[in-house]
Amino acid sequence: MLNKTIEKNGKTLRYGYTTGSCATAATKAALLMFLNQQKWETIEISTPKGWTLDLVLHDQTFSENEASCSVIKDSGDDPDVTNGVKVFSKITPSDQAGIEFAAGIGVGTVTSVGLSIPPGEPAINPTPREMITREIKTVLASEAARQITDLPKGWRVELSIPQGVELAKRTFNPKLGIKGGLSIIGTSGIVEPMSEDALKASLKLELSVLHAKGFKEIIFVPGNYGKDFSEELGLSEEVLVKTSNYIGFMLDEAERMGFDKILLIGHLGKLVKLAGGIFNTHSSVADGRMEILTAHAGLLGATQKTMEKIMTSKTTDEATDLILSKNLPDYFDHLAEVIKKKVTDRVYGTIEMEVVLFSKIHGFLGQSKDAEELRKRLCTH
Predict the structure, then answer these.
(1) Which of 132, 161, 191 is the endpoint of a domain?
(2) Do 100 and 214 lie in a common domain?
(3) Boundary (domain end) residue, out of 140, 168, 191
(4) 3-state helix/strand/coil string of the chain
(5) Do 250 and 321 lie in a common domain?
(6) Number of structural domains in the chain
(7) Residue 26: which domain range?
(8) 141 in the same domain as 235
(9) pTM of structure
(10) Where residue 53 sits, what CATH number does that domain have?
(11) Does residue 365 share a domain with residue 298?
(12) Are residues 108 and 234 in the same domain?
């Protein structure tokens, strides 16, 4: 266990370590067991973050032909599907110089372009590969290893996560074109609990895969509500990207990558914030939902009494009931146009943006003027 913590929102949260660190530790230990023909109980590795980890080993086996062991992943207080899984490494000597990486059971294989690893390679990201390579070189440079006269030319490192086949179904991997299991990941070797940077990186990766595949027209949804509603509209899931609360960040990345058109579909409670120029829609960053809804009701002729009721609504659904009951002319189409202008301005007019608004209770609410045409282009049939 890594006994380092960070304070976030008044809570003390514990750091963890990545699957890349687990794979590195297991590989280093397996190599030492192979060279010394004896069991190791713990192993120490360095991480790119600069922290040293001393990790407990499990499932140690060795012979004159190979050695293997496992390390249990500890995600700290980060909600991660890989927490508690065993990451195995098996090392075998090779007649080929260098280090060959292989995907064992539960570690995926890259099948798509746009990722940091080319198609056909095991889904072991660059930083874990570098960490493993460095630790192998460190062991081989030690005085004990130099005394061994018949060291092989190279090594084959096979990484496995037995639970990975099932767990991968709960990750982005199938959509990213990583088949057969999980990825061995981590850029710092350390898991920062509930890291905003890590989530942004995964969202950006999904976008880059679509770009690499040549898609120019895509769909943005904040979360599962938007995904479900898109399916109801018959839209293609292949080009659908979840933005989470980081709509501004994802718009910036889409503009940088050069996408042509984006259909933004979302629950009123999230997308209304965009009408006020709020591009991180997490409630802890900013709210303003009722203020924005009230202001646009006033622009469309609502009475002061109606505006007061909207302003004091507890939820956007309650506010929507009021707006619909007052028959304000094309209110939600108007709001969609306001959002469209805000997001178009965000990308300096380089991407054609269209907007669809809905709510869980009321269903479809409204859309920007040319959204229907883009919807038809993005339908699966």
Answers:
(1) 191
(2) no
(3) 191
(4) CCCCEEEECCEEEECEECHHHHHHHHHHHHHHHHHHCCCCCEEEEECCCCCEEEEECEEEEECCCCEEEEEECCCCCCCCCCCCCEEEEEEEEECCCEEEEEECCEECEECCCCCCCCCCCECECHHHHHHHHHHHHHHHCCHHHHCCCCCCCEEEEEEECCCHHHHHHHCCHHHHCEECEECECCCCCEECCCCHHHHHHHHHHHHHHHHHCCCCEEEEECCHHHHHHHHHCCECHHHEEECCCCHHHHHHHHHHHCCCEEEEEEEHHHHHHHHHCCCCCCCCCCCCHHHHHHHHHHHCCCCHHHHHHHHCCCCHHHHHHHHHHCCCCCHHHHHHHHHHHHHHHHCCCCCEEEEEEEECCCEEEEECCCHHHHHHHCECC
(5) yes
(6) 2
(7) 5-191
(8) no
(9) 0.75
(10) 3.30.2110.10
(11) yes
(12) no
Is the domain of 73 the same as that of 131? yes
Does 327 share its domain with 352? yes
Tens digit of each residue's pLDDT, the chain (381 residues): 688 888 876 778 899 999 999 999 999 999 999 999 999 999 999 999 999 999 999 999 999 999 999 999 999 988 788 999 999 999 999 999 999 999 999 999 999 888 889 999 999 999 999 999 999 999 998 877 777 878 899 999 999 999 999 999 988 888 888 999 999 999 899 998 877 888 888 899 999 999 999 999 999 999 888 999 999 999 999 999 999 999 999 999 999 999 999 999 999 999 999 999 999 998 778 889 999 999 999 999 999 999 999 999 988 999 999 999 998 889 999 999 999 999 999 999 999 999 999 998 899 999 999 999 999 999 875
